Structures
1.
Amino acid sequence: MASPTEIRKGKVIVYQGTPHLVLEMQHRTQGRQAGFVQTTLRSLQSGSTTTTKFRSTDSVEFMHTTTQKLEFSYKDADGHHFMDLETYEDTVLSSEMIGEDDNFLVEGNSYDILLVDGEATRLELPASVEATVTEAPEALRGDTAGNVLKPVTISSGITVQVPLFIKKDDVIKISTSDKSYLGRVN
């Protein structure tokens, strides 16, 4: 057991008997009262988010976590399949666990998978991914005044706003946090 002051973003703790990922944490004090740690936790089983306070007298149990780089192979009815390139072991993450991150998965790319006590529990996306443009309308003459954007569709099926010079089959870099265009890949 550890003190709540040791809680950090990205750690996994046991809260109400289930593993929870720490999304945010703030250490607070109020006047003469004892300090406390306010946290935002996401359940690794249900995916629900909770905000809770831990007093300095509480104790917290941390779970052993590791991160493993696995290659995304394919998606089927069982879920999303990731392969360890050293052992060729197949790891399956459910579609509920992946959620909207499915839009950024590209076959053959490697991703970090969070393992809690040896069991895969969460996909950790990189800050940006590269994707191929599959559909892009032509720019119209006279549209070049200012910072004009057009919608294009990438290989995963999502639509992204990009500058007018982007064409079909271009490879672009996209932010995974807000689906924004970051640049063209040469």
2.
Amino acid sequence: MSDRQPPEPSPFTTAIVRGALTRRTALTGLAGLAATGLLAACGSPGRNASASGSASQAPKAAATDLSEADKLVNWSNWPEYIDVDAKGKHPSIDGFTKATGIKVNYNEDYNDNDEFFAKVRPLLDAGQDTGRDTWVSTDWMVARLIRLGYVQKLDYGNIPNLTNLEPSLKDVPFDPGRVYSLPWQIGFVGIAYNPKATGGRKVTSVDQLLHDPALKGKVTMLTEMRDTVGLVLIEQGKNLANVTADDFTAALAVVQAAKDAGQLKGFTGNEYTKPLASGDTAACVAWTGDVVQLRADNPQLGYTLGEKGIPMFSDNFVIPNFAKHKLNAEKLINYYYDPKVMAEVTDYVNYISPVAGAKDELVKKDPQVASNELIFPSQEVLAKTQTFRALTAEEETSFNRQFQAVVTG
């Protein structure tokens, strides 16, 4: 759809492994989910070896593709993770239907990685259609889906706009060669603070966040293990690409000590945003897209990206086994890899676009957003990005159990 040539490769890291996401509204019933074993994906431990990915792989048979006869695609995504107009409609989806004649059943029923996984796994294990042709999973969950054999290889012949993929995102450890997944949105992890609640001081380091007496009892961290512990690991001089079990335990001990000292108010998903805006929370670990949204109403809010390194994550399209409209799903992915279309999405969700050329398109429509360094970061910032290495099933279970003991203990 576009003959735009990608720019020179940016120094995006090639390892994108994140826990859970983003500006989306997180589940509020954390305690209830814990009781049922479906703790928010942001930090939920594998419930058993099978849940974290050591089970035998699912049947590989693909369903008969009904795409040509049935002009339909079923897409599950996170809440508030696509463009919306004043009437509550999604202009980009309407544009896809107009361009292709394919209707989109769009569902915002992906509230949490593990919760969603628990819904679709029994169907995939039984060799049944999940009722979804594509969905958007966080990178670490993509690794699990691939490990279990639950997702299909993408047919690049149906995605010619793949040439617009940011070059350094074409090969990632959780999906070498991008065989099974393509990124939807990308974001950073940093420290947000409200100057009214900090006495006007800036919060520029994890050390300050966890030890400054002026912030005691007014600090929150994320229930996402990789983001919270990742920030501490980087502060300790570790590289997230080669974290060891001992590194992880040592970093987690620092978080535990801060909690024991009363420095921490608690651990949150996206619900940190309102307390931060009001000043009830002075400083917190936060995601870029949320901060961009909050700054629209309160430009005084501060946000710090680490000098030693910046955790980065991605959310990704996948196509599950037994999907009935695989071709239509690939046409949908292709549509969103048109820079003009992705610019529409970026203008609303305020996360980092994986599509080269989206910024050029957005400059024409919304130059203020196009100039926002948290949405289109500089090469200098990108050079500092790090991502948590891919974990084995056993490591994922162990790390999450340790982390949950701190979060809920």
3.
Amino acid sequence: MAEKHRMTPDEVVSYLLEGDGVDYVRDSLRWMVEQLMEAEVSELIGAERGERTDDRATHRNGYRPRRWDTRAGELELAIPKLRKGSYFPSFLSRQGRARPRRRALVRKCVVIAHGVHESGRREVIGLDVGEAETEAFWREFLRGLVARGLLGVQLAVSDAHPGLKAAIAQVLGCAWQRCTVHFLRDCLGQARKDQQPMLAALIRPIFAGQSRY
């Protein structure tokens, strides 16, 4: 029987940082808006997916593709269709670009956790919405992941938020690595705008290095 490969912390970091984190942002955003669309459609027709009710307004009827241009890049969304009437996501404009939602907005933080299995499989393992990114909020979020079966975490990669770092140490007790996307953003903020492309080109190869030397 072949020996099961276990990724080292360095390999996990390299895997997480493929594409400078852009793929993570794009995948997370796509997953989040898909959940939002499903919630909006459920509210519109008066029933969750697969739920049978007598007072529902209509039924789902497949999906239609639509391009969405965001700061994370272009996304191809699958927008739910209805048998009667129509649905259009509240977060889209008719031109397909991201725009502020017109309803009254309340500032909240949306957090997403990605997991990389020792085999290399990557998936979204958690999403939550909170009033603020406090240490207590992060502790509750991480404990929720553990309660749902998360175990054996070898490395956590995140921004340098003090509350998050403390919660990771308390709940997961694993090694911590700063997200290079945030690190690079901080570095670029120290240079003039016209210098930033050159500085980014010099820094990015460091993240892909096979060793410290």
